[in-house]
Amino acid sequence: MAQLRKEITMTRGVVLAVTMILGSGLFGLPGLALEMGTPHEALAAWVLISLAMIPLIFIFSDLGVRFTTAAGLSRYAEEAVGPWGNNAVVYLMIGSVAFGMPAMSNIAAAYIVRLVGASESAVIPFSLLFIVAMTASNFFGVRATSAVNGLAFSTLAGLLVIVIAHNMGFIDRGLAALGETASGEEPLAFRSVASICALLFWAFLGWENLSYGLEEFQNPRRNIPVAFWGSFFVVTALYLLLALTSTGAALSGHSVGGAAGMADLLPRSFGEKGLIVVMILVLLANGNVWVFSISRMLYAGARDAILPAPLARLDGRGIPRLSLFVLLALFSAVTVMAPLTGLSTGQLVILVSQNFVFLFAFAIVAYWRLTRGAKRWLVSGGATLTSALLLSDLSWWVLFPAGLTAAGYLVWRRGAKG
């Protein structure tokens, strides 16, 4: 059987990981956090959630080195609960991307509509075009995927330099606010900080998805930890810089709340349209790398006889072309059908969000079973507390991932008996 090619270097790994995490939340969440509490509470939440991610990075980095396979998180679940966990995670991830990627494409389409001045009726056509675009580069291999993501990251870095250089005074005020928060000068409401943390948690989702691309890493024992920790420090630095800037601006009397509040921090010469172009590029890179990872998951699932065997076929360049076509068709179908069934973009996001409680649980249990000593309890306990932040948003929608998990178990059991 043809094998996936090991074309992901250390640099490409870091870029893939960074662009897998960064999305529309980069410029939207700082303003949304300010609407949920005081500037000091929002800043405290950014710091706390950044620290809370450390145990999960430990877990995904450790498991990634142990299991350098395209099965990724599915393999971790098998280690956690036995063979049926592999089935469950494959179904959970398919359920996640089936609704999550159309939601992302709808968000990107909304930006495009605003950019070109089209009517709201154009959202679905633009969404379908965006799905084609974020899938297309994957047909040309890892190098093309890395090139697209590198371009988006470079553009994003340039925009951040502009924002930071234009608002150094706000950053100074944000640093002063951080000192006031740490010293206890400004009272914080625990419930408010916890709610903001739950919101900001979504900005850090994506490292679990990187696991599906680890089979293609060169020198995995060295490069996989660098990809996880390097991307963590880059992403955290970007988020905290924007958090300091938005906090400083809010305390200085500027209106920067809401999803588009950060646009007011750009020089007038740059304008709203410039920000929209960058956001579309960031979303394209984000979607592009998710398609890359999930196509590898489909390939691994077929290789393990969980999914139809044809999905395990690779072309002459080691690309799971059929998996990419299946994802393209799936995302397009859901994009068209969702509004016909009354599902809004927000509801699509809720469906996806519930799944991560289950997905993280499998990884945490796998790490706990494979490690020993104090580190086992410290890291697993910290990751459990971090994942608990998701529980504040649980609703009856949790039946969706519960059903997918149960389906994974039942299908495995039927196969085992047969």
TrEMBL record:
Q: Give the membrane topology, semicolon-separated if more than one.
A: Multi-pass membrane protein
Q: What is its main location?
A: membrane
Keyword list, A-Z: Cell membrane, Membrane, Transmembrane, Transmembrane helix
The domain of life for this entry's organism is Bacteria
Instruction: Name where it's found.
Output: Cell membrane
Read off the Pfam families from this record: AA_permease_2
Q: What is this protein called?
A: Amino acid permease
For whether the record's keyword set contains Membrane, the answer is: yes
**TM regions (residue ranges):** 14-34, 46-68, 88-113, 122-141, 147-167, 188-207, 227-253, 274-299, 319-341, 348-368
Matching InterPro entries, A to Z? AA/rel_permease1, APC_superfamily
